[in-house]
Design goal:
CATH topology of the largest domain in chain A: Nucleoside Triphosphate Pyrophosphohydrolase
Low-confidence stretches of chain A: none
Largest sheet of chain A: 7 strands, mixed
Shape of chain A: elongated
Radius of gyration of chain A: 20 Å
Oligomer: homodimer
Number of strands of chain A: 9
Distance between the termini of chain A: 38 Å
Mean pLDDT of chain A: 89
CATH architecture of the largest domain in chain A: Alpha-Beta Complex
Structural class of chain A: alpha+beta
Number of helices of chain A: 7
Number of domains of chain A: 2
CATH class of the largest domain in chain A: Alpha Beta
CATH superfamily of the largest domain in chain A: Nucleoside Triphosphate Pyrophosphohydrolase
Helix content of chain A: 25-40%
Chain lengths: 243, 243
């Protein structure tokens, strides 16, 4: 939202944005143990939210989301997917946006475009946790990783947006090689299993998981390198280059 | 669009709608032979388009789409699903909307909200062809069924929207019982196969299809009734009530 916060600007057109259209992004990362998402906290409000933003009048929706993610994570070429549009009337609560702007020292008039109703397009992103230094934007104190089973209370319908993103991830788990984007280039079978368990929200039997994964024919197993450590060190795998 | 066409109304707010947000609907029906969709033709323009519309300031996005479909088809409780948001800058061609409005005897100023940029949410609907009498709206001459392999040239990116809807239908074919919404309550195996073939765009071997469908355990076969006709009349099936 950083270019949209000049207090003298009251209409979306003057600000250079499309009115009524926002996006919210559920940015998944895996720290080797847990599935996490990025959450922003707004200055002086105790409000926690998904990183989101608006669409400039001369940019595509996808480009707007890519721009926002780049500003937040420094990453380009992120795996990004639309998953649902949130268009209920209940998500129109102008007092919340007012609170956020006031918390950052702005004084919006009631007609300010940011206080109007927004329909939000949900996107999820899968990124390699280690490549990222989360950056708060101008309105936010912080932008931090939270484990998906330990999220703070989120504003508006953002919790519902996270739930829907997870459902989509589950539905896509077998057909879209989710792991490619969440794991380092080489990983252990256990790490892969932990990604699956975190997304599915349930434990999987180790032998069942291993057999199913190997049967897909998408994993390449690498030779163990002699490191002087125990020969019980796990095998490392990588994904075969997709066709 | 029928409530949005008063020429004295220039802003979306005055018209009671959200600016910049539209929907386009791909309404699938099956006539027993072919998969078809509803296409509108605008007065005096030779422009063909998907039935679409706008969101009132006080209604949810889903309700706006349901309202539009009811106005077009007289049907409530339609099976309806969001599938993609179309947000490119290239779809902003104000001359086309101007042509449509002029064709209906309106004289919009360049600032008219309908001539501004729209991001469109694509929805697909599956309806029982026989229940429907398509109704053109105020801007349109006609609203007619067209076989999906014999569509007229569609305006803007509407052809791309149809393609994406079909892709989604294909992806969902096995998990969402698409046939329930496209077929009458009782149908032959051949009719079911024709629905699948139309969606997949390819022929399926009859025996393969029949075996796969029966193996799913979702079909109930009904006794043939004695009608005096040949006993070679095909069996009728219905879907088992979903769990």
């Amino acid at each position: 939202m950083n270019t949209a916060s000049n207090p003298h600007i009251a209409t979306a057109k003057e600000a250079g944005f499309l009115a009524h259209i926002a996006y919210d992004s559920v940015i998944f990362g895996f720290d080797g143990q847990q599935l996490k998402i990025l959450i922003s906290e707004y200055h002086n409000t105790k409000l926690f939210a998904l990183p989101g933003g608006f669409v400039k009048r001369n940019e595509s929706l996808d480009d707007a989301v890519r721009r926002g993610l780049f500003e937040r994570t420094g990453l380009n070429n992120i795996y990004l997917e639309q998953f649902h549009v949130f268009g209920s009337v209940e998500r129109y609560v102008p007092e919340i946006m007012e609170q956020i702007m006031v918390g950052s020292g702005k004084a919006p008039t009631p007609e300010h475009w940011l206080l109007d109703r927004f329909i939000s397009v949900g996107y999820y992103a899968l990124i390699n946790y280690k490549d990222v230094k989360p950056q708060p934007d101008e309105l936010s104190d912080s932008c931090e990783w939270y484990a998906i089973d330990k999220l703070p209370r989120l504003m508006l319908d953002h919790r519902q947006i996270v739930t829907k993103a997870l459902e989509t991830l589950r539905d896509n788990l077998d057909k879209k090689l989710i792991g490619v984007n969440l794991l380092p280039e080489r990983f252990t079978m256990k790490e892969l299993q932990m990604v699956y368990e975190a997304i599915l929200g349930e434990k999987i039997r180790r032998t069942t998981f291993q057999r199913a994964m190997l049967a897909k024919g998408i994993l390449k197993r690498h030779e163990k390198q002699f490191t002087g450590k125990s020969h019980k060190a796990p095998f490392l795998y990588s994904f075969e280059t997709p066709q």
